[in-house]
Amino acid sequence: MVFAVRERRTLRYNYMKNSELRPLDILILLKKITSSGAFMSYRELASSLHVSLSSISDSLSRSCLAQLVDCNKQKVNVLALEEFLVHGLRYAFPVKVGRVMRGVPTYISASPLKEQLSSGSDAYVWPSRLGTIRGQGIVPLCPNVPQIVDKDAELYNLLVIVDALRIGRVREREIAASALHKFIEDYGKDEC
Question: pLDDT tens digits, residue range 100-111?
């Protein structure tokens, strides 16, 4: 009897521990909806995102449980992902704008939102030695994002949109949601 209770507690703990979405999960899903990431193997995803192979596997298992990818962990459920990004991301992974520092432009300081929104004199950056401008620091979804986006413009644009969804005001979030919707409309059309 005691063993059964302990076993149930352990199972419940492991389920809760392994079922919560993490920022890396969002990064991997965003990579999978890019044209270069749609058909990547786990090994290629791990290499392009500078994470371990087991991290990719664990992440896609969590995403499958959250119904953000299919059971084969290959095709992203873009409708569910879009809904989560637009309505839940800023609550699940909140961020505060930090002090002025050198970094990689993001939010309304980078394309595709830079052209639609005026940032005035304010610049926003992911802190990084690789940065080209000084601005208010925003912690990226994952620490390795500034290194990844240097080689992947499509993922960079998606992460900029995601930052607008995380910290933007109503108008900025609406523009970002529209940009995200346009981006993912084409996901999966090449397979037919």
Answer: 999 998 888 887
Tokens linked to 8: 């149930």
CB 142 within 8 A of CB 27: yes
Contact 136, 124 (CB under 8 A): yes
What is the reported pLDDT for 84? 95
Long-range Cβ pairs for the range 58-64 (8 Å, 24+): 58/18, 59/22, 59/24, 59/25, 59/28, 60/28, 61/18, 62/18, 62/19, 62/20, 62/21, 62/22, 62/25, 63/21, 63/25, 63/28, 63/29
Please state the pTM of the whole predicted model. 0.85
Q: Is 67 left (phi over 0), alpha (psi -120 to 50) or beta?
A: left
